[in-house]
Amino acid sequence: MDKDGFWELVEAARVEVDDTVADPDGVVDSLTKALGELAPEEIAGFGVQLERLLAESYRWELWGAAYLINGGASDDGFDHFRGWLVAQGREVWEAALAGPDSLADVVDEDLGDGFEGFDGEGMLGVAEHAYGAAGGARSDFWKAVEAAGIDTPDVPVGENFDFDDDDEMESRYPLLSALQDR
Which terminus of the chain faces fewer neighbouring Cβ atoms within 10 Å, N or C? Predict the structure, then answer.
């Protein structure tokens, strides 16, 4: 499966959900059904594309935005945030990688009382679960993903900076910082 096929499946799943920002698990549920109709090899191909996107997005600049948006982001929290970001679709994904402050337009309505964070943990395992449900062994799924030879960085790409430095964060993310101040 190529990148376009990956995003076509995500976009089709998003259409089934009223509010993907607040309900990334709805995207996961819809995507699980769609992937279940594919052959195991195609599901593994989806998993390969997801892993490539996760490797591509392992960047300090994006992690800083996740930290600001969610009021903190551990290693796992950043992974889950990137799963949420995939559920927002290709346009939001690409805009966020080009300039993470663009996420202010996406999260604006959902920040506030009762906010639980932007977490798409379920997206991270959607292909593996669908592969297993289609009769494939999960170990075979991971062998197929590993065979793709995805170069995953050991540390995030880019300049590391202090996420707890308010001035630094306001300088890097003026739009997101303004949301925090309201």
Answer: C
Among 41, 31, 19, residue whose Cα is nearest residue 122: 31
User: Measuring CA to CA, how many Å separate 72 from each of 112, 139, 143, 146?
Assistant: 15, 33, 33, 30
Structure confidence at residue 182 (pLDDT): 61
From residue 175, alpha-carbon distances to 75, 81, 121 in Å are 24, 18, 25
Cα–Cα distance between 100 and 36 in angstroms, integer?
32
Tell which residue, 4, 165, 23, has the closest CA to residue 87: 23
pLDDT digits (tens, 9 = 90+) for 25-43: 999 999 999 999 999 999 9
Nearest to 107 by CA among 177, 3, 9: 177
* Radius of gyration, alpha carbons of the chain: 17
